[in-house]
């Protein structure tokens, strides 16, 4: 038998406990992304064999940080973490903010296919987004540095709300580089949470800060 390249990764045993009774929806999303993600330019070919461990679980681990209410996700792309969070937390309304038309089309049709009635998709860049009601929390993953993200996203969050940015291992360097911007945006309670030890191959680091 020839080796099958880019085969979809088997579901890790840690997936079902993370999603609870939403696991079947997470399975459908993962299968849809594996089937169509590369062709639609949503994920690279190397990502299919590690969809669960590097992407789906990495995002699901953030779900317990959400509070009931409205959470934005800037630069959702394929739906990471926005759609994953909407699956894991049906009690939270997710507002996905993404400028690219093809990605917006995917997010809208995938949310409908998955039966997610807790998702709104806005086609815009964060800096041009205008909301009638500010968000309670806002996430972003792999969008830009803290120095660029904070000024364009903090104004979308209500006073007392939170920014939750998924970041790589150099997050502290980014925080140091953004010190002035963090002060100017009046963020407090700045911290880095390290999540997923023993659950995912690489831990997830979350920059969390309160918007005053
Ligand atoms: C590298 S992709 C990451 C997508 C997804 N968050 C993930 O982790 O796979 C960056 C995404 O951010 C979007 N983006 C870039 N600048 C943005 C901005 N200023 N406002 C909103 N989205 C932005 C891009 O269109 C793209 O979909």
Automatic annotation (TrEMBL):
Q: Name one Pfam family in it.
A: GidB
Query: What are the EC numbers?
Result: 2.1.1.-
Annotated residues that bind S-adenosyl-L-methionine are located at 75, 80, 126-127, 141
Q: Where in the cell is it found?
A: Cytoplasm
Gene3D superfamilies documented for this protein: Vaccinia Virus protein VP39 (3.40.50.150)
Q: Name one GO cellular component term.
A: cytosol
Is S-adenosyl-L-methionine among this UniProt entry's keywords?
A: yes
SUPFAM superfamilies found in the cross-reference section: S-adenosyl-L-methionine-dependent methyltransferases
Per the annotation, which location comes first and is thus the protein's main one?
cytoplasm
Which keywords does the record carry? Cytoplasm, Methyltransferase, rRNA processing, S-adenosyl-L-methionine, Transferase
Task: Please list the GO terms describing molecular function.
Answer: rRNA (guanine-N7-)-methyltransferase activity
Q: Write out the function statement from the record.
A: Specifically methylates the N7 position of a guanine in 16S rRNA.
The family classification in the record reads:
Belongs to the methyltransferase superfamily. RNA methyltransferase RsmG family.
- Name used for this protein in its record: Ribosomal RNA small subunit methyltransferase G
